[in-house]
């Protein structure tokens, strides 16, 4: 494993990306979230007009998304019976909690071990949604936005925070439940790949897993209640391919498990207890350090450039920003442009053979420790 990570750190080029998406396009159109989730014609309008306007504003500096049905990470949950709520106006889609206790949940999953996902929950609605989008965009690939979660997050969404107490009260029963959820999520994955997309569910080179709620699990329980189920989920997606992990909110003592899991690329995303020096010190896994929209709004143009220079100086493999509806004009547009310019400068220096410290030298605040201690992004990140 050490040879693997020595190679990954050495060979990984600097990566940066600004992601365009339909949520940003809502800033160009008077379309609500409810319309986005429920009306194919609204999604057609978002993609047709939004992608054109994005290109006019950002050119090739921002990625253009493929057409997709609405992104809903509760597809598996809906398939096994969890009700989804679609609030009017601009409320996010939400999933209702199903169980009051662990025993009830285990019994239910025993009875629903075999699910016909093609006829369950909102899945038929979004398969028809996909057909409507394919008619509107002939010749373009249309992605299905329904997805699932990792096992701990799935358990949390179905049972609420009580599962974190039951981890201590009945750890064996919780492990049984996590195993049931993992097998069910893997069945949903196979359905989506084979039946909906017509592809092999085992990818030859890549597997992605997202499990934010695992951050609430104490390090002492990671070997018994997190890692075995992550392993099972990865193996249902790839055998020898690279593993990417998205897990927000981890703290320093939990980071070692990212490397123990054999992860090839780590996305800490919104993790208030971490900053790049902590991640670099604890693990050798390549990782991206995200600039979130709520960070960007509160930072000056220079602070955003310094953000890029210091994350490179402190060992991050790259960075990304996801556009939101208010980033295409005024001061926020200038902030995005500063981020892009700094990423290009860092990439240019590193490609030319320069060092990470050469990139850091471009910052107005020369000390990485001084920058991160005053950064507006997170507080209390002492680890």
Structural account:
This protein has 383 residues and is mainly alpha-helical. It has 19 helices and 10 strands. A 3-stranded parallel sheet has the order 1-10-9, covered by helices on one side. A hairpin with an 8-residue loop joins strand 3 and strand 4. Helix 9 crosses helix 10, helix 10 runs parallel beside helix 12 and helix 16 runs parallel beside helix 17. The protein is globular.
Number of strands: 10
Please mark out the parts with pLDDT under 50 across 5 or more consecutive residues, or reply none. none
The biggest sheet amounts to:
3 strands, parallel
Distance between the termini: 25 Å
Number of helices: 19
What string gives the helices and strands in order?
Answer: HEHHHEHEEHHEHHHEHHEHEHEHHEHHH
How is this fold's topology laid out?
Blueprint: H1 2-11, E1 15-19, H2 22-25, H3 33-38, H4 40-58, E2 67-68, H5 75-79, E3 84-85, E4 94-95, H6 102-111, H7 123-136, E5 142-143, H8 151-159, H9 163-169, H10 171-197, E6 206-210, H11 222-225, H12 227-235, E7 242-246, H13 256-260, E8 265-267, H14 276-282, E9 288-290, H15 293-297, H16 301-313, E10 318-322, H17 330-351, H18 356-360, H19 368-374
Parallel strand pairs: 1-10, 2-5, 6-7, 7-8, 9-10
Antiparallel strand pairs: 3-4
Helix pairs in contact: 4-7, 6-10, 8-10, 9-10, 10-12, 16-17
């Amino acid at each position: 494993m050490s040879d693997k990570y020595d190679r990954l750190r050495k060979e990984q080029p600097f990566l940066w990306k600004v992601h365009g998406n339909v949520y940003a396009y809502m800033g160009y159109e008077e379309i609500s979230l409810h319309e986005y989730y429920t009306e194919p014609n609204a999604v057609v309008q978002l993609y047709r007009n939004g992608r054109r306007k994005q290109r006019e504003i950002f050119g090739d500096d921002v990625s253009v998304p493929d057409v997709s049905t609405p992104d809903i990470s509760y597809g598996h949950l809906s398939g096994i019976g969890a009700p989804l709520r679609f609030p009017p106006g601009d409320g996010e889609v939400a999933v209702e909690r199903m169980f009051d206790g662990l025993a009830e949940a285990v019994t239910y999953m025993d009875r629903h071990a075999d699910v016909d996902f093609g006829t369950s929950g909102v899945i038929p609605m979004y398969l028809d949604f996909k057909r409507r989008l394919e008619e509107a965009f002939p010749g373009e690939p249309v992605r299905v936005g329904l997805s699932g979660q990792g096992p701990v997050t799935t358990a949390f969404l179905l049972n609420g925070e009580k599962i974190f107490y039951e981890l201590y009260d009945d750890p064996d029963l919780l492990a049984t439940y996590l195993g049931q959820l993992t097998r069910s999520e893997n069945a949903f994955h196979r359905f989506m790949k084979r039946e909906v997309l017509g592809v092999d569910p085992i990818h030859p080179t890549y597997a992605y897993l997202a499990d934010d709620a695992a951050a609430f699990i104490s390090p002492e329980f990671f070997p018994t209640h997190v890692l075995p189920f992550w392993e099972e989920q990865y193996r249902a997606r790839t055998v020898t391919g690279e593993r990417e992990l998205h897990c927000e909110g981890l703290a320093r003592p939990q980071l070692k498990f990212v490397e123990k899991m054999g992860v090839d690329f780590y996305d800490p995303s919104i993790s208030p207890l971490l900053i790049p020096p902590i991640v670099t010190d604890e693990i050798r896994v390549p990782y991206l350090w995200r600039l979130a929209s709520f960070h960007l709004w509160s930072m000056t143009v220079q602070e955003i450039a310094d953000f890029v220079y210091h994350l490179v100086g402190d060992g991050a493999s790259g960075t990304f920003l996801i556009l939101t509806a208010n980033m295409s004009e005024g001061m926020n547009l200038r902030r995005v442009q500063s981020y892009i310019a700094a990423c290009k400068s860092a990439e240019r220096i590193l490609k030319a053979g320069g060092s990470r410290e050469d990139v850091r030298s471009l910052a107005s605040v020369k000390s990485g420790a001084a920058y991160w201690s005053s950064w507006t992004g997170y507080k209390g990140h002492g680890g």
